[in-house]
Design a protein that fits this description.
Blueprint lengths: L5 E5 L5 E5 L4 H13 L1 E7 L5 H12 L3 E6 L2 E7 L9 E2 L4 H12 L4 E5 L10 H9 L3 E4 L8 E4 L3 E2 L2 E3 L5 H11 L2 E2 L1 E6 L6 H8 L5 E4 L4 E6 L8 E3 L4 H13 L4 E8 L6 H8 L3 E10 L2 E9 L7 E2 L11 H8 L5 E5 L11 H11 L3 E5 L2 E5 L9 E2 L5 H13 L4 E4 L11 H7 L3 E4 L1
Parallel strand pairs: 2-17, 3-16, 6-7, 10-12, 11-13, 20-21, 24-25
Antiparallel strand pairs: 1-25, 1-26, 3-5, 4-5, 7-9, 8-9, 13-15, 14-15, 17-19, 18-19, 21-23, 22-23
Helix pairs in contact: 1-2, 1-3, 1-6, 2-3, 3-5, 4-5, 7-9, 7-11, 9-11
The chain binds shikimate-3-phosphate and phosphoenolpyruvate.
């Protein structure tokens, strides 16, 4: 199927209805990778069938696991208790999580592998992971610039390290812990604020012992090397980072009420929802339950008058992927929404601070960019009427399309095919709620 070159969102009268969030991307990558490292069978339900995760599924198959798709979101991974040298380059596509976690996992085995990705992934810093894997004795050779893909790994014979992070990163933490599983000694990662803990939780579900110590600031996670994983069942709940888009639309389009069911409520992922509540959003969570080792619930958002706030900087790790959509909703708030301490946004699929600032400004929104953040001053009438360059970043595309639903004039985005990396059903889901999003 050919992808449209552009998508346009037109002002919507109101959005109403109930939808289900797609499976969580972070957990989907981890379920496939741990399933492949384990011995035995891992049955996964609710796997996100987005391009990022499908690249990881192909990667773990290349590393020797048997990977079967049993039905929609239902996958079976049969692991060999280790990785073997793959025949081809491991192409992780657009996925930072995929490549960094796979590098960590693969580093623990006596194999070689070449990792690569698309043009965006080739620009993202890998040294934040590979420098530490090298300290553990893995070797990386770079055919181009050091620290940028493609990279050739020679793994095996690792020693544990004690790593103290200055910026919380679940990808760095996870890569080191996955390598640490096959290292000699106790591997420890200390974070200034806790980042998402799906790796730790899932490792325990696969039978590993992972210790967590709460510190005055942040926490310390450790595991002893030489632990074997055993395949298990994984139920992947809905992705809060994707649920954010239809919920945002409901908050800013007058007359709207939207419920998203089955959203994961891990407290290390819900910073955006708390921030919206702090801004005065009418957001209610019902039907809280436990599923697959995570709390999930149904979230209803109704159109709300939002007030700008200063977002606490120590919340950044719990909503790092959500600042683009927060900025889009802040464009409709009374006053300024100040977002700081988020320099990490500049090294995602794009420089998200620069692209949000440019896209919002093109839509007539007052925005001030800083080195490590930005401030959006809202208004109850956002002009829209722009074509926004996304640099192939799914969250930049979706955030501007949502803004277009509530603006005075339509908003168009380029490279909309990239939305499928994290949210392949985005357009259909939004149309089901009454949104007018179509090929430009
Ligand atoms: O571990 C993960 O699944 C993720 C961690 C975050 O990245 P960092 O670890 O770089 O903060 C986040 O931005 C990414 O989308 C998913
Ligand atoms: C940053 C993201 O993903 P990744 O780092 O896996 O590419 C994201 O999904 O917003």
């Amino acid at each position: 199927m050919t992808q449209p070159s552009h998508l346009t969102a037109r002002p919507a009268p109101s959005l109403n209805g109930t939808a289900r969030a797609p499976g969580d991307k972070s957990m989907s990558h981890r379920a496939l990778i741990l399933g492949a490292m384990a011995t035995g069978t891992t049955e996964i339900e609710g796997l996100l069938e987005g391009d990022d995760v499908l690249a990881t599924a192909r990667a773990v198959k290349a590393f020797g696991a048997t990977v079967e798709r049993l039905g929609v979101g239902q996958w079976r991974v049969t692991g060999q208790g280790g990785f073997r040298t793959p025949a081809d380059v491991i192409d992780c596509g657009n996925a930072g999580t995929g490549v960094r976690l796979l590098m960590g996992a693969a580093a623990g085995y006596p194999i070689t592998a070449t990792f690569d990705g698309d043009a965006s992934l080739r620009k993202r810093p890998m040294g934040r992971v590979t420098d530490h894997l090298e300290r553990m004795s893995a070797r990386f050779d770079w055919s181009g610039a050091r620290g940028l893909l493609p990279a050739d790994l020679t793994g095996g014979s690792l020693s544990a390290i004690d790593h103290v992070q200055t910026v919380a990163s679940a990808q760095v933490k996870s890569a080191i812990l996955l390598a640490g599983l096959n290292a000699v000694g106790i591997t420890t990662v200390t974070e200034p604020e806790p980042s998402r803990d799906h790796t730790e939780r899932m490792l325990r579900a696969f039978g590993a012992v992972v210790e967590v110590e709460t510190l005055d600031e942040g926490w310390r996670v450790s595991l002893t090397g030489g632990q074997a994983l055993t395949g298990t069942g994984v139920a992947v709940p809905g992705d809060p980072s994707s649920a954010a888009f239809p919920l945002a639309a409901a908050l800013i389009v007058p007359g709207s009420s939207v419920t998203v069911e089955g959203v994961m409520l891990n407290p290390l992922r819900t910073g955006l929802f708390q921030t919206w509540i702090d801004m005065g959003a009418d957001l209610t969570i019902t039907n809280r339950r436990s599923s697959g080792g995570e709390e999930v619930g149904d979230i209803t958002a109704r159109h709300s008058r939002l007030n700008g706030i200063v977002v606490p900087e120590d919340r950044a790790a719990s909503m790092i992927d959500e600042y683009p959509i927060l900025a889009a909703t802040a464009a409709f708030a009374d006053g300024a929404t100040v977002m700081r301490g988020i320099g990490e946004m500049r090294v995602k699929e794009s420089d998200r601070i620069a692209l949000m600032a440019a896209g919002l400004a093109a839509c007539g929104v007052a925005v001030e960019e800083e080195a490590e953040g930005f401030t959006v001053t809202g208004s109850n009438a956002v002009r829209g009427g722009a074509t926004v360059t996304t640099h192939g970043d799914h969250r930049i595309a979706m955030s501007h399309l949502i803004l277009g639903l509530a603006a005075e004039q339509a908003v168009t985005v380029d490279e909309p095919g990239m939305i499928a990396t994290s949210f392949p059903g985005f357009v259909a889901l939004m149309r089901g709620l009454g949104a007018d999003i179509a090929e430009a």
